[in-house]
Amino acid sequence: MDALDLARWQFGVTTVYHFLFVPLTIGLGVFVAGLQTAWHRTGKEHYLRLTRFFGKLFLINFAMGVVTGIVQEFQFGMNWSEYSIFVGDVFGAPLALEALLAFFLESTFLGLWIFGWDRLPKRVHLACIWAAAIGSNLSAYFILAANAWMKHPVGYEVVAGRARMTDVWAVLTNPTALAQVPHVIAGAFVVAGGFVAAVSGHRILRERRAGRTGEPAMWRGTLRAALVMTAIAGAVVAGTGDQSARLLWEQQPMKLAAAEGLRHDERGAAFSPVPGIEVPKALSLLAAHDPDAPVQGVEDIQRRYEAAFGPGDYRPNVPVVYWSFRVMVVFGLSAVALSMLGLWVTRRRRAVPRWLARATLLALPLPATAMIAGWLLSEIGRQPWTVQGELLTAASVSPGVSLRAVAFSLALFTLLYGALAVAEARLLVRYVKAGPEPAPAPAGRPGPDDAGAAAPAPAPTLMY
Amino acid sequence: MELTTVWFVAIAFLWTGYFVLEGFDFGVGVLLPALARGEAERRQALATIGPVWDGNEVWLITAVGAMFAAFPAWYAGLLSGYYLPLVAVLAALIVRGVALEWRGKVEARARAWCDAGIVAGSAIAAFTWGAVFGNLLAGGPAGTLAGGALALALAALHGAVFLALRTEGPLRARARRAVPALAVPALPLAAVTLPAIPGAAAGGTGEWTAHPGAWAAAAAAMAALAAAVALAWRRREGWAFAATAAAVALLTASVFGALWREPLPGLTVAGAASGPYTLGLLTWIAGAALPVVLAYQGWTYWVFRRRVAA
């Protein structure tokens, strides 16, 4: 065990943890903005109650995404100084742009939204939540473009041992980024859809037990909206996933081979969904859209890489990559299938069956697990490179940072993150159980030019 | 002006914005139990920074992101070189951020934990930033401690003035009365530390020492601090806040003036810089975006300009 291993563990732990919160921020922000828009346009007060209810859950989660994100930006320089020096010219630019163009937008307008209920004209207040949601989604684009460059570096040259950007357009329209950005953002909407569906399912079960008749209709609405969101986003995830597999075939054959456990080059390669079962020619068909296309195998790529890059082990951890791929596909598709089934059984004013409400609760971990598995596939499958073909992970680590220092920070972040995860889960459960607050007494219908003065009382629960 | 100079100045500007803005919300955090009595006043105090603290923190994210993009070797050397202090800053910012956001949502008995997190997180982050820059300039434990103590004392003073400016009622009166008390550590620390900065440049090139701007900045910062105390006492809180903000800005400018040429031992600005293509690109985008950011952040402060009642 040396500082390199621990630095990798720390990156893995902090990144996976960060990405538990980010998808929910991305998807739920848009959902809350949608609810508030519905309130604004219809004036129906249950939309206002739902906006505040999901807004609270959104903010509890948002805080965690923000604070764990700072660690990510610092970590490159702290643990991976050699990497940072090598890539800064290319990789640093999207990070700087992310902060300047996306994070300022997100944080400033979210502050205005939280505290602006009774200060801003209604339309301006609504625009604030949309600006914040746009900021979240924009930040995803920049960071994913930076990440895509690590896997498929483009628009650069290496001068004096450092990458230099030569074409920013190539970096921002990297085909890997263009496939990955919609894949991950749509995945975030699947996560958020699953979350809203589970919350709605829980509320439906609870309201029915309590014998309230009006409320379940409201939750049926959010459940259906969440299922629609999940189903549409699921289709985008599947389509862009297919595109990503084709790009792997072209750009990152080692990752594809590891994901499939394919040892040797093959024409018309078979796909094996689980070990022992093989579908002839399916892998070639999936990866290249041609049943007879050649697919490279791990051992043969290893041989070619040794010839190209010198002796070394260029194979990622094959079992982890292989199983991550399967978990991602199975868990992700299950969540999407459930959403489609749910839409079918609740079509045309049909009530939500009890089993569906329960199933949405049980399915809560599926999309997030699929998301994390996807990241493990993507980033462990990239090993041993930090920048494919240019820089090895072992050469990326900070030379001056001791094993002890990394061990300390890894232990501290793990403990802190663990404690905060428990606190966040308890807070979310508490607010989901409490449900939305009753409608404010003088529920003024928002007129089109209604200024803030006539707005219903501010929501103190959204404030400090 | 060369692009490397433009970006060194831009990064100094971003750090200045960070310390001026987050400086007062650190200060409010540190002073929370000392100045705000009871739950209503604590909510009142936190409501002054509630809408803006997260936006203030993005100045740090942008400053560090800009260092990464424009001077990768500076970014990498600074962050890996100050590894453990930065772990402390990160942990403090995490605890503080979560505590600020969750305080109004947790059960009443957990609020004390959030308050402790806000106080400790704000104090540790402010002190550690000062210590990092103090150490960068002066090297030894004296410089480190002086830097940390000065940053903490200035944040508290800046925060007290901000509270006096943005609240009404007993909290405002208490915050105003705290200003002279907080000046007792802040002014002597500043008087000792500020004149040492120009001579403490890492390379010892003497360039900044010889620069009249360095001494003007130190003198102006001292004058601004003294003026802030007098102005707060005379209930001119807006002007007092402008004065503490100016003092923090001048201090930060002075620090970056001393870091010019050699931002880290053995590293030059030119040697740390990205290529002209990246720097040119960043210049165009930042030139277009930064005014917009300043405008909407400024608008936020305008929206929440009214004093907060208990």
Quick overview:
The complex is a heterodimer of chains A (464) and B (310). Chain A has 464 residues and is mainly alpha-helical.
Descriptive labels:
A: 464 residues, mainly alpha, two-stranded antiparallel ribbon, two-stranded antiparallel sheet, 14 helices, 6 strands, 71% helix, B: mainly alpha, globular
Describe the structure.
- The complex is a heterodimer of chains A (464) and B (310).
- By secondary structure, chain A is mostly helical.
- Chain A contains 14 helices and six strands.
- In chain A, the strands form three sheets. Chain A has a two-stranded antiparallel sheet.
- The longest helix of chain A has 40 residues.
- Chain B is 83% helix and 0% strand.
- Chain B is globular.
- At the A-B interface, helix 2, helix 3, strand 2 and helix 14 of A face helix 2, helix 3, helix 4, helix 5 and helix 14 of B.
List the helices and strands and how they pair.
The complex is a heterodimer of chains A (464) and B (310).
Chain A (H helix, E strand, L loop, with lengths): L2 H40 L2 H35 L1 H35 L6 H30 L4 E4 L2 E4 L2 H5 L2 H36 L3 H38 L1 H8 L5 E2 L14 H7 L5 E2 L2 H12 L8 H28 L8 H9 L2 H16 L4 E3 L3 E2 L10 H32 L30
Antiparallel strand pairs in A: 1-2, 3-4, 5-6
Chain B lengths: L2 H33 L2 H12 L3 H18 L1 H10 L1 H20 L8 H28 L2 H26 L3 H24 L2 H4 L7 H4 L1 H22 L3 H23 L9 H4 L3 H28 L7
- What is the radius of gyration of chain A computed over CA atoms, rounded to a whole number of angstroms? 24 Å
- Strand fraction of chain B: under 5%
Mean pLDDT across all residues of chain B, rounded?
90
Number of separate helices of chain B? 14
Shape of chain A: globular
One letter per element, helices H and strands E, the order of chain B comes to HHHHHHHHHHHHHH
Q: How helical, in percent, are the residues of chain A?
A: over 70%
Helix and strand content put the structural class of chain B at mainly alpha
Total beta strands of chain A? 6
CATH class of chain B: Mainly Alpha
Number of helices in the DSSP assignment of chain A: 14
Q: In terms of per-residue confidence, which ranges of chain A show pLDDT below 50 for 5 or more consecutive residues?
A: 442-464
Number of domains of chain B: 1
Tell me the strand percentage band of chain A.
under 5%
CATH topology of chain B: Formate dehydrogenase/DMSO reductase fold
Show unreliable segments of chain B: none
Shape of chain B: globular
Number of domains of chain A: 1
Family (chain B): Belongs to the cytochrome ubiquinol oxidase subunit 2 family.
Protein name (chain B): Cytochrome c oxidase assembly protein
Subcellular location (chain B): Cell membrane
GO molecular function, one term (chain B): metal ion binding
